[in-house]
Amino acid sequence: MYAFDYKKAASLEDAQQAFESADDGTFMAGGMTLIPTLKQRLASPTDVIDLDGIDDLRGITVDSDSVTIGAMTCHADVAASADVKKAISALAHLASLIGDPQVRNRGTIGGSIANNDPAADYPGALVGLGATVHTTKKTVSADDFFTGMFETALEEGELVTKVSFPIPEKAAYQKFPNPASRYAVVGAFVAKTKDGIRVAITGAGATVFRVPEMETALTGSFTADAIADIAVPADELNSDLHATAGYRAHLIGVMAKRAVADCG
Q1: CA-to-CA dists, residue 214 to 71, 106, 221, angstroms
Q2: Cα–Cα distances in Å, from 129 out to 87, 193, 220, 247?
Q3: Please, what are the domains in the chain?
Q4: Tens digits of per-residue pLDDT, 181-238?
Q5: Is 143 exposed, middle or buried, given 0-12, 13-18 or 19+ CB atoms closer than 10 A?
Q6: What pTM did the predictor assign?
């Protein structure tokens, strides 16, 4: 690990000022990605600005139409929330599948989506539910937020503050996890919303993506059989030591059908 200056921000204003005054600063949420990156000397920021002291970025609120989660809310809190379970049970279920207890109690929703690991779970929920990401500069739809592998619509120095999820009629998440990391080899989030059917796939490609053919088929018949013969081309899918692109293409169909069946 290279030497750096550590600063714990007490407010968003503190965090922004610290970032602007740093030569090469970086923000830290739960540190689940940043700390291993620093330990492996894959990054050498001059300043690490810890967001853990900003209480305004924590919390879960639910109203008749949406669930809103503060960026510094940890996965364990989402998984355990009775309000989230009642409003969007699939979202609580997804959070319960992330990593292990240590990761779930330190990792945050804001840190996860800002990092946009291609195998992360939360991007599937955001795109699958048509969520809105709120930042220190703007609001952006989930469909436009995830732009590429480890890339998002965030500008330099911009922070996620909260995420708002519309409450769907029904939704479910199913994933095939890596047995060691619990990251999604392939994850499928299926939701029936007031604006239509959404099918979001994570883990398979460079970033989360939707499957329009499945969405159209499910609009006509919301059953697993309706998408049984829909194949996603393997051409642009990830291929690594965990799974070939062809295997991931197969898993997309399997996980999507399971998610539809789980919607009830």
Answers
A1: 31, 35, 10
A2: 12, 7, 19, 26
A3: 5-50 (3.30.43.10), 58-263 (3.30.465.10)
A4: 999 999 999 999 999 999 999 999 999 999 999 999 999 999 999 999 999 999 999 9
A5: middle
A6: 0.96
